[in-house]
């Protein structure tokens, strides 16, 4: 039976932290389950920390330091790792970054913007620059890179089932020069054709629906309750109350029911890309 996959500690601070944690645990002759015994966490949680995919909670870090006799090393460094994992992202987005890596399904409704997971570099840069009301931030490049890095989710062999409902207006709104808008829509279409996502388009004349007031992201997990995330321009809100999650779940299902089917939606996205590409008007 092959051993655990090697961790590239040079890839990031979280993977360096995780590799050190695995090394200390194995040096002590402990299994993952044995190390978490007596804590409130399971071995799968520890495994994801060792791979750099999940943040280390402070109470678990303190427990690990006590069991491994590491003199507070993991507790002292866990906040540094937490900050590194969300580098380029707002602090309120941390739960989404962590959730994306573990989710079985991700379902998004996006009425005003193409979602971050699907944005090209030019689209992401334009959107991020638009939020800098007091002048361009020196961190724009960092934020753009961080947003684009999220799309690596689609490169995984077992990526989450990603279902997105886009308002038709997003296919017509030229926030970029026409060629770049065509490229953005082509990118979504290619992901759809490669079955990395299931797209649906809500026609502009579809009438009222339960999620008219804003976008929503719903995530489900194999080992945790579902989670809902909503966002405004400068804030975000994570919801895990089962009653509220269920309301969002039902509203999303009703929205999906009135949207176009995936194949028709894909055809509309491709047609919109061609419209931008063939338009003879100047940018």
From TrEMBL:
UniProt keyword Metal-binding, yes or no: no
CDD domains linked to this entry: HTH_XRE
Keyword tags: DNA-binding
Coiled-coil regions, chain positions: none
Domain of life: Bacteria
Record GO terms (molecular function): DNA binding
SUPFAM superfamilies in the cross-refs: lambda repressor-like DNA-binding domains
Domain HTH cro/C1-type as annotated: residue spans: 20-74
InterPro entries referenced in this protein's UniProt entry, alphabetically: Cro/C1-type_HTH, DUF5753, Lambda_DNA-bd_dom_sf
Name of this chain's protein: DNA-binding protein
Organism annotation: Streptomyces abyssalis
Taxonomic placement: Bacteria, Bacillati, Actinomycetota, Actinomycetes, Kitasatosporales
């Amino acid at each position: 039976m092959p051993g655990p996959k090697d961790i590239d500690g040079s890839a990031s601070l979280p993977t360096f932290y995780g590799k050190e944690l695995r090394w200390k645990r194995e040096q002590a002759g402990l299994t993952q389950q044995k190390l978490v015994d007596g804590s409130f966490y399971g071995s799968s949680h520890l495994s994801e920390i060792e791979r750099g995919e999940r943040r280390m909670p402070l109470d678990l870090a303190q427990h690990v330091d006590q069991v491994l006799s590491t003199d507070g090393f993991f507790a002292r460094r866990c906040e540094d790792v937490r900050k590194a994992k969300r580098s380029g992202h707002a602090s309120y987005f941390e739960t989404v970054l962590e959730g994306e890596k573990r989710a079985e399904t991700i379902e998004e409704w996006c009425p005003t913007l193409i979602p971050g997971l699907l944005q090209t570099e030019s689209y992401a840069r334009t959107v991020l620059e638009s939020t800098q009301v007091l002048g361009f931030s020196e961190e724009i490049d960092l934020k753009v890179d961080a947003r684009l890095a999220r799309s690596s989710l689609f490169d995984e062999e077992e990526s989450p089932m990603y279902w997105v409902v886009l308002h038709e207006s997003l296919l017509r709104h030229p926030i970029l020069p026409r060629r770049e808008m065509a490229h953005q829509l082509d990118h979504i279409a290619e992901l759809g054709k490669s079955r990395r996502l299931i797209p649906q388009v809500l026609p502009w004349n579809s009438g009222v629906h339960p999620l008219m007031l804003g976008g929503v992201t719903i995530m489900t997990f194999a080992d945790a309750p579902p989670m809902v995330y909503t966002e405004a321009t400068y804030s975000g809100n994570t919801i895990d109350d089962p009653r509220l999650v269920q309301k969002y779940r039902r509203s999303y299902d009703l929205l999906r029911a009135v949207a176009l089917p995936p194949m028709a939606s894909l055809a509309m996205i491709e047609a919109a890309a061609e419209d931008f590409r063939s338009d003879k008007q100047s940018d």
